[in-house]
Each structure stands twice: as C-alpha cells, then as structure tokens.
Amino acid sequence: MFRRLTGADAYVADQLFATLDPTVRRLMLPGGTTVVAADTVGFIRDLPHDLVAAFKSTLTEAREATLLVHVVDASDPRRDERIDDVNRVLAEIGADELPQIMVFNKIDRLGLPPRIDRDETGRITHVWLSAAESIGMDLLADALAERLARVAKRATVRIAVNGGALRSRLYSSNLVRAERAADSGAYELDLELSDHELLKLAREPGVEIIAVDSDGKTCVLPKRYLQSQEHALVLAEPLPVER
Fold first, then answer.
1. First-to-last CA distance in the chain?
2. Which residue ranges does the chain devote to CATH 3.40.50.300?
3. What pTM did the predictor assign?
4. Cα–Cα distance for residue pair 1/131, rounded to 1 Å
5. CATH top-level class for 2-150+231-236?
6. Angle at 219 between CA 213 and CA 224, to 5 degrees
7. Residue ranges, CATH 3.30.70.240, the chain
8. Residue 225 C-beta-side C-alpha neighbours within 13 Å
9. Are 234 and 62 contacting, i.e. CB atoms less than 8 angstroms apart?
C-alpha cells in the first residue's frame, strides 16, 4: 500500500521485522497538498522483551504525526483483535489521541467494493481498498487530502532577515502560498500548515506569528504564540504473526 500511495520502491517482504527503521517518502495529494508519509514497522502482540526498545523506537514518528493511517487486513478473521493490539501500543507511546483513518486492505479477498465510511459529522473514518489490485487507492488519496484539509490553517509569519535557511525549508515543504518584503527587510510569508507545524515554527528563533486564519476566521496573535514540521502521515499495521 505504501508503494501504491507514494510510488516509492520500498522494501516489501512477508517476514517478521523485514525492516526496523521507518520508511519516509514525500507525496502530493489531490488539491496539491504535499505530505510526508512514514511507514512504521508492523505491530505485533507479546513482543519479546529484548526487542521492545528497538520496536518502539521506530514508532517515534507516530507521536509527531498530523494523521495516523491505521492499516487493517480486512480478510483476517481476528482483525478486531489486531486493531486492539495496535491501539494499545499507540496508547503506550502517547499517540492514541491523534487523528486517525482506518484503512481496510485486501477487500479483493472478500469480494467487497471499495468505499469510504463517514461518521455522523461527515468526517471520513474508514477507507476500504485493495493495494495489491490497486482498487480504491484513489479513495484513500482523496480521504487523506480531505482529512488534512480539516486540520490545516493559514498563517502569516514574519521571518528575520537572517532567516533565509528557514524560508528555503518552508518553500521546499510546499507550505508557502505568498510572500512580501516588510519595510525592515524581513520576510512576510503566508503559509498553509497544520497546528503542529505552526507550533513548531513559532519556536524557531527570529519568527513572529502575525495572524492565523482557521475556518475563515482570522485572529491576530501575540508575538509569542507557541507552535512546524511537514504534514506527517504514519502507516501503522499489525503483522499477521501469532506469538
């Protein structure tokens, strides 16, 4: 699924801990939103104690994510049990409160059509697809774009004259929507980014958050706001292994 989504030639093998390091790739979603997707190691119940530290170190990406993509084998008769395993580990590492989309993969084994499920508020909660058959991958891309759009904010920031390196990073992350030069020579940038990105950016030296526009409402902020890294997706899935 990671290969289909990002076009990356990521290593794939039907074996325990084929990789321990997360694979990270950039992709562009419908509408032009650029995100960074991180594919974690597979989850497993009753991990041997000598591997616990190595296993959890690969999940540090999850705590920084804007959105978690929880991948489930739809054909697994014990899928509910597997889901609980993943959610328990997410709680242990402090990532259980992050926004999440659950992806039911391998629907071709069940003869099910691809679809998107929403909750009572209209928010996308589940995507049903088959990565192997490339069925429903467009629905996943649309779902990610829609969910990330809901957490995105527009902000105007002022960066000191000596902040050229930071300005370049913001452009390379595709977060800049417009730029002006202030009378002082500082950079004034209109950005589109997540809460997490905005908070991280505000901690950068020489950065002043001038205003934030969320849901069409603009508020002017005090100089010390608190708050950027790129949008991050984390793909979390249980391994089909019994312990």
1. 25
2. 2-150+231-236
3. 0.62
4. 5
5. alpha beta
6. 105
7. 152-220
8. 25
9. yes
**Residue of 110, 118, 115 lying closest to 129 (CA atoms):** 115
Quickly name the fold that domain 152-220 has. Alpha-Beta Plaits (3.30.70)
Query: How far is it, in rounded angstroms, from Cα 160 to Cα 117?
Result: 45
Cα 71 to Cα 40: distance, rounded to the nearest angstrom: 11
What are the tens digits of pLDDT across the range 114-148? 999 998 878 899 999 999 999 999 999 999 988 88
pLDDT digit string, tens, across residues 77-101: 999 998 988 888 788 777 888 889 9
Find the length of the chain: 243
Cβ neighbours of 19 (radius 10 Å) = 16
In 3D, which of 205, 196, 188 has the Cα closest to residue 229?
196
Distance CA 181, CA 159 (A): 10
CA 6/CA 3 separation, integer angstroms: 5
Write the burial class of residue 50 (CB in 10 Å: 0-12 exposed, 13-18 middle, 19+ buried): exposed
